[in-house]
Amino acid sequence: MSENKKFYITTAIAYTSRKPHIGNAYDIVLADMIARYKKQMGFDVFLMTGSDEHGQKIEEYAKAAGITPKEYVDGVSGEIKAVWDSLNTSYDKFIRTTDDYHEAAVQKIFKKLYEQGDIYKGHYEGKYCVPCESFFTASQLVDGKCPDCGREVVDSKEEAYFLRLSKYQDKLLEYYEQNPDFIKPDSRKNEMINNFLKPGLSDLCVSRTSFKWGIPVTFDDNHVIYVWIDALSNYITGVGYDPDGSSEQFDKLWPADLHVIGKDIVRFHTIYWPIILMALGLPLPKQVLGHPWVLVGEDKMSKSKGNVIYADELAKKFGIDAVRYYLLSEIPFTQDGTITYESFITKFNADLANTLGNLVNRSIAMTNKYFGGKVSQGAVTEECDKELLATAEETIANYHKYMDIYHNADACETIMNLAKRCNKYIDETTPWSLAKDEANNERLSAVLYNLLECIRLLGIMLTPIIPDSCDSIKSQLCCDNTELKFGAVKDYSVGEAKPLFARLDAAKVLEEIAAEQEAAKKAAEAENVATVAQITIDDFAKVELTAAKITACEPVPKAKKLLKLTLDDGSGKDRTVASGIAKWYKPEDLIGHTVILVSNLKPAKLCGVESAGMILAADCAEDDVKVLFIDNVPAGSKIR
User: Hey, which of 200-204, 257-261, 559-563 has the most confident mean pLDDT?
Assistant: First the structure.
């Protein structure tokens, strides 16, 4: 493997809490497209992906399921791998953070950093988000909740080991300045500099004592190594890094040429990870690509919202390449993309069935019909010929330009524009009219050749995006020439025309999906009923519910979600409660109503408001919340 031609690319390793949805799968599909393109360009590519398998959340899920954490992650890791395989991704290695060699190397990394003074022992006290496995200070919270995921946080205080981020802050900022393309898009880099580096880095908690499902610290049995050093180190341990002596493969592959990750974990990969590498004396990765999210309509995917779409299920219904094409063509470089079944079907019919599939099918069918499948390059005589060839040359140039900078949606658009120009060329030249007079045979042959040669180019450029369909194009053309230049093939002898994509009946497909969703919803409801956590009467007796009348209400400054309620709970003193219901209620809608108050909830400060309790509300239809009013009940009445 020559150094100037190697290309080591990684995805973020998927967390083994749940089966990955289509948004999670975008990482591997994007990385696979880049890997296939780099192979086209002559690079010796190594693509690594995998699963992140430690942490408190895993421990809790396993306990709820009645199995060991290892049994739990074995199952989910297997699901992740199956989804990646269902999308025809060509990864070279799938690493698991429970792999023995990874755990051993991480223990050595932790010990090395401790012994050289980059890790030290202390205590952590702050707000902890279990789903994100992150600590925050009170000032970092948004509306009293996790700034990353918006969920509730808990107070946590424990002994911990810390990584001296502050020691390397200036060195990292200098690296950013010397390597302006280290983080892409540029907006992500600006965010890291302005939001984290310039305000100053706090040292990072890198061990935990409150759970056991993690890699043990070898010199301190009470601690397990926290996610940042564990999970991030996979990029080096997976290719043979060991502090005591690394492998030949590591020496050849590192530094990584590209980390492909979601925008929500850019901070971890461009601040924590580079500092870990600096502390280890290793070179930093050449580039980190923080891609946007795949949303369902305007929302992130959530099982609780019932809007989760799974990539493998979509691939079974519509085909692998249809899923790959949608993801790679609909997710812009800097902005979140969306997916709905309606938009998926529209895109499928417009681009794959009508534009590309129809072009390939009728061009090969006409070649067989009029010339027994054989045509040769002819003279370029008409203006439309020149325009078609110019479009082909421009498309090739734009293809390289966009693929080199990972603008996949732009690359897909420029390729599909060539296919559209080919269809227009058919309308301009009307081969069926030319075929009516033998005197036009030479012209007709040239027209069909031009179409077949453009189809060959389309097949080459689309190979990283929809590889199986491009194999079919190559087979139908009976040509495996991969030179990306118009005219590289002089003669064609094509095979049988076979449809690439059958047009979908949108109404019928959407009706089928709606029926499937309804069945899945009922099954999920039944599962929830069966698995809901049960409490004793003593547990319930601990909660004090009191009728309270809202006497005043006002918005909370700088908190879009919160309203400040003043309540008469019958005690003779006003009680203040901050409630996140501003999206559904105006203050005047609430004043004078009596509500149910959880009156013995521990007070908490939310955006400057001392909130002493919680009012009860119901989740109704999707994104609809209704406060429970009991206006006929006197304030202060106890509810049992």
Answer: 257-261
